[in-house]
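The instructor's notes for this session suggest beginning with a concrete chain rather than abstract definitions. Hand out the sequence below and ask the class to guess, before any prediction is shown, which regions might be ordered.
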Amino acid sequence: MRRNTVVSVAEHLARSGRWSITLYVGDMTDWTADPTNAETMTMPLDDQHIWALLRDLDDADRMEFPPIYDHAATRARFDQLAERLDRRFRCTCSVDRGVQDANHHGTIVIPASTTASGDHITITVSNYGNLVAVTLGNPGSYDEEEENILFETADRRPINDELEALGYITISEHLLWADYDGVSNLGTYFEPRTWWNRFFDYI
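After discussion, reveal the predicted structure:
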């Protein structure tokens, strides 16, 4: 039998928000026989797949929480994120854990005095699908062009490192301001409706 030295298989993992690319070395019959032959790497989703993820997480009946939701685990990871950001920025972040009647779990604010960007940074953690939004200032403070100029890499990089380490999926704030056209009855609560309202707001 002729050997296939490298076979590449890519699968979109919508729930985790990553592309997983696995390289198998050896016979095609080795795919299941020897999983130790596999090497895996990940890359961020592009806008098209972010939209696919958001629509997949949208629910017609559940506005605050997804069907499967572990509050204790969500809170433990949220607290871990706050602690890690405290260490990375050598500060005490302002943390809102008392969120109720909302589709987000809480917010963490890195004070302006410790950022290179000259403004505070807000991290909003959704109740859905490991989603998180990182905004310079308060949500909606800057348009996309302003943020690209003002939000320094020295701030972006450590935040992204900590989010990725904990398995969060960062969604651009600017995508989320698009008009909401999903399956829920969000219009009962908001007018006009946006995707930010759907996953990162109060109900």
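Then share the key points. Confidence is low (pLDDT under 50) at residues 1-43. The chain is about 30% helix and 25% strand.
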